[in-house]
Design brief:
Elements lengths: L1 H14 L4 H46 L21 H10 L4 E7 L4 E4 L5 H8 L9 E8 L6 E7 L6 E3 L1 E4 L4 H21 L5 E8 L9 H17 L4 E3 L13 E5 L2 H15 L3 E5 L22 H16 L3 H12 L10 H11 L22
Parallel strand pairs: 5-7, 5-8, 6-7, 9-10
Antiparallel strand pairs: 1-2, 1-3, 3-4, 4-7
Helix pairs in contact: 1-2, 5-9, 8-9
InterPro entries: Aminoacid_DH-like_N_sf, Glu/Phe/Leu/Val/Trp_DH_bac/arc
GO molecular function, one term: oxidoreductase activity, acting on the CH-NH2 group of donors, NAD or NADP as acceptor
Protein name: Leucine dehydrogenase like protein
Amino acid sequence: MALANLKYLSRLHSCLKNCPTLSTICNTYHLRECDVVRNICSTVCNFHRTAHKETSSFKNESRRTGKVHSFRKYSSEAEKSLLSACPTTFVDFLKSKKITRCFFAWNDTSKKVEASHPELKEIEDWLNDPDNSYFQQHEAVFLSVGMRSSCLLGAFLWRLDRGQAHGGIRMTPFTSVQHYLIEGLRLSKRLGVKSALAGLWVGGGKGLIFEPKDRQHIQPEFRQKIFYDYGDFLSSLNGCFSLAVTSGLLDRGAAHVYVTDTSKKSIGDLHDALASKARGRLKVDKVNIGDNTIIGYDCDIFAPCAVGHIYYLTQKTLKMAAEKNITVIDAAHELADAFSLEKHPLWPDRTKTIIQSLIAGQWHNGQDFWRKRRNFAKNDCS
């Protein structure tokens, strides 16, 4: 602002130099502005002089001790807390501690969450906090730094009594590590509840990838690196977390999609929503209750949505809500809570055993069998 004022006042001064009075006023203002600029410049110069002096002292100390120090400090106000730190900063912190993998797992003996590294005590305490409503009987949280992309990768596992954790992967930006953890905990429980209500013998799971700030993920080459990293991360978990794929049939080249429903309104809504995308490949028909002729259709994918378990579960939920005088949502949550604790009929506690073997086998220190694959790049994140 001061330099802009000087520029315009200089022009004014040249135009009015034949007018003594105005010229005197202009000169006076010009001198005052120069004083302001001189003070600002002096402050900036002092700041850079001090910074240069501290940097030189820091370098001399490094030469004297023979230690290589990082110029990045983690003592700033934004970085004092790991939970409030940006995930990118958290990745830098992990690298500075030579940590490429870490976990937070529930210990049935101590009845609390235990972290893989003492440097992560803050997050461990947050997960064990009784007031933390997001951590609700989760079995484990596994985190890793992508070897190729340096992205923060995560797998969140909730209640594994029914079997392996199943869930999709989401890549999205997060404001902080706490935000990242909250989303993973919340979504893994949601998927576990849905699976339990659907009668599936799987536990709740969710994979999260922190979206890079510089939008590198939109570049095909870098995006491929991210997926390779998550594939290696997923393989290292030895099957305790399995990806559940959701297929958009109309987006993936399906030749024909046939849908039936007993509700004429549902059929109309479905047709209106998908007609433009289907381009003649979608056929919807209203059928009578009990008409299961669609089961006999020759198809590649058959997805029954309202028969069998789901139909009877809906009846049970409505009945419980009426008997207990509670909402349907509360009744569904009660049922899901009970169903999610049922043991898998063939492999009870199998997934929990896998987690225990990962911990005992020093997974967090990079010890696993799959590194012996021929096509695996052996250089690490350090």
